[in-house]
Write the structure tokens for this entry.
Amino acid sequence: MLSTLALYAYAWTVNPRTVNIGEIGSDDVGSFVRTQGHVREISAVGGGGLQIELVDYSDFAAITVFLPGKIARSIEFMERIVPGAKLRVAGEVQEFGGEVEIAVSDASMVQLLAGAEENRLGLDTLASNPEMFDGMQVLVGGEVAEIASAVDWDKTLIHSDGDSFWVDDQERKGARGNVDVFGLLLYNEERRRFEIKVAGENDAIAPHPADIPESYAVVTIHELAVAPDAWEEKHVAVLGVDTMAGEIIGTSFTLADAAGGERYYISCMIFGWDWSTDKRGMAGGVAAEFLGTWGYYSREAQWQVTSDEFTLRL
């Protein structure tokens, strides 16, 4: 009798029932199941354990998979389990906090089916539920429909006598041509450089010559370029310089693809690559795959796939 029970228990663990994520419910608590899905989110819990949210892209059903710390540390490909990766897992269905989850008891019960870099999503899937993929690394593909250099119009380059310096003019207070610049010198962590920020009440980019506000130190572009630390967080005035509006920060393009009789479009951006001077085979109408991070950009009021590296395959 004992051997029969032991054999049954063994069979229960080595032959789990294969189900879709959406089919797992409270009636399955205590049973052993196998399912698969894409990683949406990973959270650390006590003892080095992990909670991994898996999503079925076919119906967007989701379930949490619990990996105890000992199991997580013994998975050889753990560094590849990131949002966007596709996993097959097996474990016992348990109830935690009023929700069902799958508890994994052995590292062999976790299989990597595809890395995030191989996770090609249909544009229709992204468009149908964009919030579901927020922050995930995704691979998209289609036909290049539009290409343009991406310009940050908040930035103005001032130059004189062979020297140049960036000005941050988010409030667009600036004139163009030969100007005087009044602003606060600050370090821009994102761009890794010093800039003159034009935002205060007396700050301006005004036609030259202009009245210099009190407490602003008159400096040259050359002095700022050579020793910016000496003027950090101080109000400076740079006089009689020329301007060039906008800074090219990358290349934006649109991918198009058809599904279900409809045509879908996804906006994409590669930061740090200027298509206008470095084509790399990019052209309208060519087929392309692009690996990047999916997210919502409030400034452009749209969802985009973005990358800081050239991850475009033509």
Q: What stands out?
A: The helical segments are 2-14, 69-74, 123-128, 221-226. The chain has a mean pLDDT of 89. The longest strand covers residues 235-259. Residues 40 and 132 are 8 Å apart (CA to CA).
